[in-house]
Amino acid sequence: MAMKIPSYKILFAITLLAFFVSCTDKVKETVTKKSEMLPNGMHLTIEKTDIKKTSFGIFTNHNYGTSHRFKYRVAVDQGSIEWDFGVGEPKHFLFCDKGIYIHYLNENSYTEEARDTINDTIEEVRVTKIESQYQKYIDERYLFKLFGDAYWVDVTEEEYARNKSLCSEQAIPNDNELTIDAVE
């Protein structure tokens, strides 16, 4: 004969369990700013925000994990040109007569298919890759830059490389949190 547990005891046990595994988050944001004059006479300002989030148990004070994120904001000539992609890490500006380009590294996530050789099945796997990306600054503002829009558009690595030989490339100071490993 099966023993029947009263529902109020089950509810009490679930509540008690949820109570002890509940977490509180501690978020710490650190903002650092760097400023420098580039060889071409432009003023560069780099603002990096580090965000560290740690989850602690409310009663047990157990550390359930810490995550780290960062975001960059880059301005040229006191904000006349701004780049704020967030999670990307800026590496180089390319100053050309025809425009301004930026090279940055970004962590991209993809879904790939992987074959399980034991079961002979195909499964989807999440893969994260750090990749170089490139953008060009488009400024369509007019009338003392009061109207219109300024924005960044993606360009190919080939377009960036083609212009690199004709333009002035300037390194952007960063903490090198994202790097691409050299293939041997």
TrEMBL record:
Keyword Signal recorded: yes
Keywords of the record: Signal
Annotated signal peptide: 1-23
Source organism superkingdom: Bacteria
Protein name stated in the entry: Uncharacterized protein
Organism: Cellulophaga baltica
